[in-house]
Write a structure and sequence with these properties.
The structure is a single chain. This protein has 480 residues and is α+β, with helices and mostly antiparallel strands. Among the domains are: 157 residues, 2-Layer Sandwich (D-Amino Acid Oxidase, Chain A, domain 2), CATH 3.30.9; 84 residues, Arc Repressor Mutant, subunit A, CATH 1.10.10. The chain contains twelve helices and 22 strands. The strands form five sheets. Strands 1, 2, 9, 10, 11, 12, 19 and 20 form an eight-stranded mixed β-sheet that branches. A hairpin with a 2-residue loop joins strand 19 and strand 20. The longest helix is centred in the first third of the chain and has 20 residues. The protein starts with a strand and ends in a 22-residue tail after the last helix. The model has no long low-confidence stretch (mean pLDDT 96). This is NAD(P)/FAD-dependent oxidoreductase. Pfam families: DAO, Fer2_BFD. It comes from Fusicatenibacter faecihominis. InterPro entries: BFD-like_2Fe2S-bd_dom, BFD-like_2Fe2S-bd_dom_sf, FAD-dep_OxRdtase, FAD/NAD-bd_sf, G3P_Oxidase/Oxidoreductase.
């Protein structure tokens, strides 16, 4: 019998797991993918939103503000990349100034600090690459950028080190009330009993919820397509550049990433396929055209890859958090679309508090005296000074062998990614942890070397190495 069983290994589920790992509880997380951060959390803009967009009083506003406040300290404790670079919301028509002023007042009501409206002259001095058509902009200095992979993996690793069981490649098929207490959870590999269920199943959160509640939810996959550009133009802008938001979202943005690239996107198209992460020529063209309205002379020829992500848009247009009224012990963390990445640490904190409060009504729940609050990421040779790198290589020569030339990722880093808690088991798992394959050539040169290391470290035939688990094997057939 588990005390808590979490469904979903994205950033929300991982944040909840990390906060629950502070307590003496038997906690498990089930994820249908071969790795954490393999669904919605892996495909977004990596923005730590300031908090001016969400409606005052909403859960989105509350969690966004708290999450933004938590992010910097959390990045130090869990060692993931985060930068408070500030954001700008551009206004191109004087007639739209009242909308921008309304956004300013809304942000202040939410508790966002430092908000101000900058005029054209100030803006162009701050960001010379902005379009000459800009009239004014809302400046949010507390806005930031973060690595969504590193954040999610850091939360999950820390939870695992503190005792949370992770069941990867094990999707939940059915949840029903237990015969005596709590719930019975069925997967493709077994049946489990738990006192508490946490539904953090992303796009499938409505399907899990609707198995236990008469108050039905409905999630629409909202597809966003992005273009990632080469690092040589990564400094074209220093702030995250938004356009005036619409009912479909915050519009197309232009932003630097914490790794030095430039990213533009996303589109916002409601679709029916919850696995529909294909990109389209039309969508990518829309992204580049709209981004060019914000930043002049935005070059198209430096795009190194494109991708699409799906946001879990619930019909109520707010986060759905907490215990379900007609399903005691079943907690939802559903409809976590933007600003979900920013909000995740706050959601984890809030949900853990509610769950522990529930459990304490029937059992003793103590905080762990040996909780490990910090975690160190994989050493990164590319960011080290010469002396530091030389010392690491002297200690372990594998850190002196470059595998990915574009991102300067070494064999030592790849081995570490495989051997650490919740280690990588695929090329995508390596990519998310080390950036091997994320550079200009998009793994054109390093894939075979990474495959060799994976096969060797995992003790499997080369033919069993996958891109992203399951049937995504890199090699097919054999000698004839």
């Amino acid at each position: 019998m588990y005390d808590v069983l979490i469904i979903g290994g994205g950033v929300t589920g991982s944040a909840i797991a990390r906060e629950l790992s502070r307590y003496d509880l038997k906690t498990a997380l089930f994820e249908k993918g071969e790795d954490v951060c393999s669904g919605t959390s892996k495909a977004n803009s990596g923005i730590a939103h300031a908090g001016f967009d969400a409606a005052p009083g909403s859960l989105k506003a509350k969690m966004n503000i708290r999450g933004s406040q938590m992010m910097e300290e959390l990045s130090r404790k869990l060692d993931f990349p985060y930068k408070r670079n500030g954001s700008l919301v551009l206004c191109f028509d004087e007639k739209d100034r009242p909308r921008l002023e309304k956004l300013l007042q809304q942000g202040k009501e939410n508790g966002v600090e430092g908000l101000e409206i900058l005029e054209k002259k100030e803006l162009l001095a701050l960001e010379p690459a902005l379009s000459e058509e800009v009239v004014c902009a809302l400046h949010a200095p507390t806005g930031g950028i973060v690595c969504p992979f590193k954040l999610t993996i850091a939360l999950a690793e820390n939870a695992a080190v503190n005792g949370v069981e992770f069941h990867l490649n094990e999707g939940v098929k059915r949840v029903q009330p237990g015969t005596v207490e709590g719930y019975t959870v069925e997967t493709g590999k077994g049946t489990y009993e738990t006192r508490i269920v946490v539904n953090a199943a992303g796009l499938y959160g409505d399907e899990i919820h609707n198995q236990v509640s008469e108050e039905k939810l409905h999630i629409t996959p909202r597809k966003g397509e992005y273009c990632l550009m080469d690092k040589k133009i990564g400094q074209l802008v220093s702030h995250t550049i938004f356009q005036m938001p619409t009912a479909m979202g915050k519009g197309v943005l232009v932003t630097p990433t914490v790794h030095g690239n430039l990213m533009v996107g996303p589109t916002a198209t409601d679709i029916s396929d919850k696995e529909g992460v294909d990109t389209t020529a039309e969508g990518l063209d829309e992204v580049l055209k709209k981004a060019a309205l914000s930043v002049k002379s935005l070059p198209r020829g430096v795009t190194i890859t494109s991708f699409a992500g799906l946001r879990a848009h619930e019909d109520h247009d707010d986060f759905i958090l907490g215990e379900v009224k007609d399903a005691p012990g079943f907690f939802d963390a559903v409809g976590i679309e933007s600003p979900g990445l920013t909000s995740a640490p706050a959601i984890g904190e809030w949900m853990a508090e509610k769950i522990v409060e529930k459990l304490r009504k029937t059992q003793k729940v103590d905080e762990k005296k040996d909780f490990q609050e910090t975690r160190k990421d994989i050493p990164n040779i590319a960011s080290m000074d010469q002396a530091e790198a030389a010392a690491l290589i002297a200690e372990n020569p594998a850190y002196g062998t470059i595998i990915c030339r574009c991102e300067k990722v070494t064999e030592g880093e790849i081995i570490d990614a495989i051997r650490r808690p919740l280690g990588a088991r695929s090329l995508d798992g390596i990519k998310r942890r080390t950036r091997a394959g994320m550079g200009r050539c998009q793994a054109g040169f390093c894939s075979t070397k990474v495959m060799d290391i994976l096969a060797r470290e995992l003790g499997i035939p080369l033919e069993e190495v996958t891109k992203a688990g399951g049937a995504s094997k890199m090699l097919t057939g054999g000698e004839r």
